[in-house]
């Protein structure tokens, strides 16, 4: 019999993912929701993509609603229509831009103050868009001039056109501040800048506790679509993402890093140590059973979306060398999304190895994801969490991984790590395992044992259940002798931290 959901309601907030996309992060969210059936979930995803028509996963009974919010498109010349500038808008924009271009903690606090004031100008569901008249261009230019004068290392030149472009992109990103958050006891934000902006706005409006999971690489990065932008605009976007992350670390009641890598990055960007609760990635061993190799032909598997930022280019470059060394080898690209099939096909055609490469959409049954291969090439994109690596390890396949982010600490000594950006080293390692059946099976068995010991979903569900209970439960009742005074605040060190410390000591 299924347990009855508790009265604690959780908003699981993602950036265009669960329950509308079948990917590694979506699978993790699904496991969390289905494993914590005593909680009532409201699912919200914020995206600037096309709105999905229906959830990609069946929703369990403890999900009250699933909603996708689209940011829409901001007109390129919206700021020129000055109209009635809201009171405080100019000051908020100035604080935001001054904090955006600063490096020290007090300056970062200026960004948070400005962002909070802008969120206050953006009530959810408003008929007008206050961001359209936010004077970001002027504020950005003034802050840029001040920083150029004071900084030891000058920033790139910011032209008027660059300032307008950057302002337009910032306004579009901050449209996430207008997304209404369901009435809940806790917001659990899983993802990057866009969902975190929506979570921060809800936190400031309603005082709802915020739990932050860094599910993607926390390194500020340049996205492929931004290559055509000027250096100054790219610098603004990179600094904006970093400042939003810093603000999230400051405002969240707890932060759950996925790995030591994420833990260190969060500490280096202002996360209070007492609020960090490491929760490694985990998968269900029943969904990834260890199966014998089914292919006699030498086969390699890579799992990813197939997009420009997914690591595909390095995989294909390495595979051309593998194909030259191992006759008849086949590469399976698993999990290619419909949006990236055309790009993926174009990249394959350039290699001239189309007959040796197979494209597969993400299998509905996880058991089919890695069993087609003898060796798994784990070449993640810069924003990929380590879930696919854990899945491959749990499946008992030998892994050759590129040493990016948490890959090294996740794989340990149960696979082969190669330096990033070196397709020849990747090819040499893959060829070596294809030619050594005994070694690759030994590595596959060791990888599965490591995954069973460190990366099972039952621990993830257990820890997050404790975090939810600790953060979403109402404050303790006021003692009788304090009835005539101010009630004591909630313990600043959450009970979950003490519980985890006892468990791991």
How is the topology of this model organized?
Blueprint: E1 9-14, H1 24-35, E2 40-47, E3 63-70, H2 89-100, H3 105-120, H4 136-150, H5 160-174, E4 186-190, H6 193-206, E5 210-214, H7 231-251, E6 254-257, H8 260-268, E7 299-303, H9 312-325, E8 330-334, H10 341-351, E9 357-360, E10 375-378, H11 387-394, E11 398-402, H12 407-411, E12 416-418, H13 423-434, H14 437-454, H15 457-472, H16 495-504
Parallel strand pairs: 1-2, 1-4, 2-3, 4-5, 5-6, 7-8, 7-10, 8-9, 10-11, 11-12
Helix pairs in contact: 1-15, 2-3, 2-4, 3-7, 4-5, 5-7, 6-7, 9-10, 9-13, 11-14
Describe this structure as you would to a colleague:
This protein has helices at residues 24-35, 89-100, 105-120, 136-150, 160-174, 193-206, 231-251, 260-268, 312-325, 341-351, 387-394, 407-411, 423-434, 437-454, 457-472, 495-504, and strands spanning 9-14, 40-47, 63-70, 186-190, 210-214, 254-257, 299-303, 330-334, 357-360, 375-378, 398-402, 416-418. Mean pLDDT is 83; it is low at 480-499 and 501-505. The strands form 2 sheets. The protein has a 6-stranded parallel β-sheet, with helices on both faces. A 6-stranded parallel β-sheet has the order 9-8-7-10-11-12, with helices on both faces. With 505 residues, it is α/β, with parallel strands linked by helices.
Flag low-confidence runs: 480-499, 501-505
Largest beta-sheet details? 6 strands, parallel
Distance between the termini: 35 Å
Strand content bin = 5-15%
Backbone CA Rg: 24 Å
Helix tally?
16
Task: Tell the overall outline.
Answer: globular
Which structural class matches the secondary elements?
A: alpha/beta
Number of strands: 12
Q: Provide the spatial order of strands within the biggest beta sheet.
A: 3-2-1-4-5-6
What is the helix content? 40-55%
Indicate the mean pLDDT.
83
């Amino acid at each position: 019999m299924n347990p009855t959901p508790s009265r604690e309601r959780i908003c699981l907030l993602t950036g265009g993912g669960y329950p509308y996309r079948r990917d590694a992060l979506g699978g993790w969210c699904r496991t969390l929701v289905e494993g914590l059936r005593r909680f009532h979930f409201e699912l919200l995803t914020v995206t600037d993509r096309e709105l999905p028509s229906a959830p990609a996963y069946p929703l369990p009974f403890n999900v009250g609603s699933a909603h996708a919010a689209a940011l829409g498109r901001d007109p390129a010349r919206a700021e020129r229509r000055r109209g009635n500038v809201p009171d405080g808008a100019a000051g908020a924009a100035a604080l935001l831009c001054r904090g955006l271009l600063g490096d020290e903690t007090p300056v970062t606090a200026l960004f948070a103050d400005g962002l909070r004031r802008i969120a206050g100008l953006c009530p959810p569901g408003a008929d007008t868009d206050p961001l359209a008249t936010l004077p970001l261009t002027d504020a950005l230019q003034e802050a840029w001039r001040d920083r150029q004068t004071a900084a030891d290392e000058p920033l790139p030149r910011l032209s008027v056109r660059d300032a307008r472009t950057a302002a337009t992109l910032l306004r579009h990103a901050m449209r996430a501040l207008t997304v209404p958050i369901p009435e809940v006891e806790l917001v659990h934000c899983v993802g990057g800048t866009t969902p975190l902006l929506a979570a921060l706005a809800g936190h400031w409006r309603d005082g709802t506790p915020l739990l932050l999971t860094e599910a993607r690489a926390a390194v500020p990065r340049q996205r492929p679509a931004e290559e055509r932008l000027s250096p100054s605009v790219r610098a603004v976007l990179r600094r904006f993402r970093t400042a939003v992350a810093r603000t999230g670390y400051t405002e969240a009641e707890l932060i759950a890093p996925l790995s030591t890598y994420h833990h260190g990055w969060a500490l280096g960007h202002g996360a209070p140590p007492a609020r960090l609760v490491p929760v490694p990635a985990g998968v269900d061993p029943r969904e990834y059973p260890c199966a014998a190799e089914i292919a006699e032909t030498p086969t390699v598997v890579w799992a990813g979306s197939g997009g420009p930022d997914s690591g595909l280019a390095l995989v294909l470059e390495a595979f051309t060398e593998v194909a030259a060394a191992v006759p008849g080898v086949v590469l399976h690209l698993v999990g290619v999304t419909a949006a990236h099939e055309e790009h993926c096909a174009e990249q394959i055609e350039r290699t001239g190895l189309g007959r040796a490469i197979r494209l597969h959409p993400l299998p509905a049954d996880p058991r089919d994801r890695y069993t087609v291969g003898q060796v798994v090439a784990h070449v993640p994109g810069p924003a990929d969490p380590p879930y696919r690596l854990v899945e491959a390890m749990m499946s008992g396949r030998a892994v050759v991984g590129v040493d990016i982010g948490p890959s090294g600490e996740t794989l340990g000594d149960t696979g082969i790590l190669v330096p990033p950006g070196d397709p020849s080293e990747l090819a040499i390692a893959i060829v070596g395992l294809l030619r050594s059946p005994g070694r690759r099976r030994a590595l596959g068995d060791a990888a599965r044992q490591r995954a069973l010991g460190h990366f099972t979903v039952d621990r993830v569900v257990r820890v997050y259940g404790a975090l939810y209970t600790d953060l979403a439960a109402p404050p303790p009742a006021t003692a009788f002798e304090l009835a005539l005074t101010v009630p004591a605040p909630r313990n600043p060190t959450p009970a979950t931290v003490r519980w985890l410390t006892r468990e791991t000591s």
